[in-house]
Design brief:
With 258 residues, the protein is of the alpha/beta class. The protein has a single domain, classed as NAD(P)-binding Rossmann-like Domain (Rossmann fold, 3-Layer(aba) Sandwich), CATH 3.40.50. It has seven helices and seven strands. The longest helix is centred in the middle third of the chain and has 28 residues. This is Glucose 1-dehydrogenase. Keywords: Oxidoreductase.
């Protein structure tokens, strides 16, 4: 646990399930105030809120489309109205649908870019404005993917957004380092979530997945959340502009061992 996080306020986008839920719940254990963003899964968001409160934190669920300025403003207003400030932003919301590039419609391409990348930019811009006008300090954490580095077949839109989010992280970190705002990223590997139930996959599919992971095991949201808590704590106060890979060694390309 990181004592300096107690009482701080965070927005976590896409926090009704999966990695976002894990991060929000860990922030609750750190005694933080958490704005739990969701778009469609109200029940999941309310479950996240209940878990945070049970851990001793404070939380409110807010429905917002993070691909829009209106949605981001709604989240910012909730943080300020409920808790008076914003200290931490976690840009976690994201999705993809596998499609061969020749079949990928412009509409589907644009929606993935809007949610995964444009939304993160809008939220970061608004968070930075608030931080500069108030405490002058703060943390932004972007959830990218190993696919910011590794191409993902039939997911051109997804891979482009994750590599773009990496560069957004580095550019903004450089821009605001001297002004007291730290901006980092976490790149998860294969994580068992409702959107990617890798542990429950067909045995042959699971075997293929494990062959890509040197540690031969699938990760869990709690492991991403542990990294997130450290990165936004004062123990990481000399860390900015970096991507922390939490991937069981996936980006070491285990195929090179064969």
């Amino acid at each position: 646990m990181y004592q300096d996080l107690a009482g701080k306020t965070a927005i976590v986008t896409g926090a009704s399930k999966g990695i976002g839920k894990g991060i929000a719940e860990r922030f609750g254990k750190e005694q933080m105030n958490v704005v739990v963003d969701y778009h469609t899964d109200q029940e999941g968001a309310e479950d996240t809120v209940a878990s945070i409160v049970a851990s001793g934190g404070n939380a409110v669920a807010v429905e917002a489309d993070v691909a829009t300025e209106e949605g981001i403003q709604k989240l910012m207003a909730a943080a300020i109205d409920q808790y008076g400030k914003l200290d931490v932003l976690v840009n976690n919301a994201g999705f993809s649908k596998s499609e061969p590039s020749e079949e990928l419609s412009l509409e589907n391409w644009q929606r993935v870019l809007d949610v995964n990348l444009t939304g993160a930019f809008i939220a970061s811009r608004e968070a930075i404005r608030h931080m500069l006008e108030n405490s002058g300090t703060g943390c932004i954490l972007n959830i990218t993917s190993v696919h910011q580095t590794i191409p993902k077949v039939n997911n051109a839109h997804y891979a482009v957004t994750k590599s773009g989010l990496k560069m957004l992280t580095e550019t903004m970190a450089l821009e605001y380092a001297e002004r007291g705002i730290r901006i980092n990223a976490i790149a998860p590997g294969t994580i068992n979530t409702p959107a990617n139930p890798a542990e429950e996959a067909d045995p042959e599919e699971k075997k293929k997945t494990l062959e890509k992971i040197p540690m031969k095991k699938i990760g869990h949201p709690e492991q991403i959340a542990a990294a997130a808590a450290w990165l936004v704590s004062s123990e990481a106060d000399y860390v900015t502009g970096t991507t922390l890979f939490v991937d069981g060694g996936m980006t070491l390309y285990p195929s090179q061992l064969k």
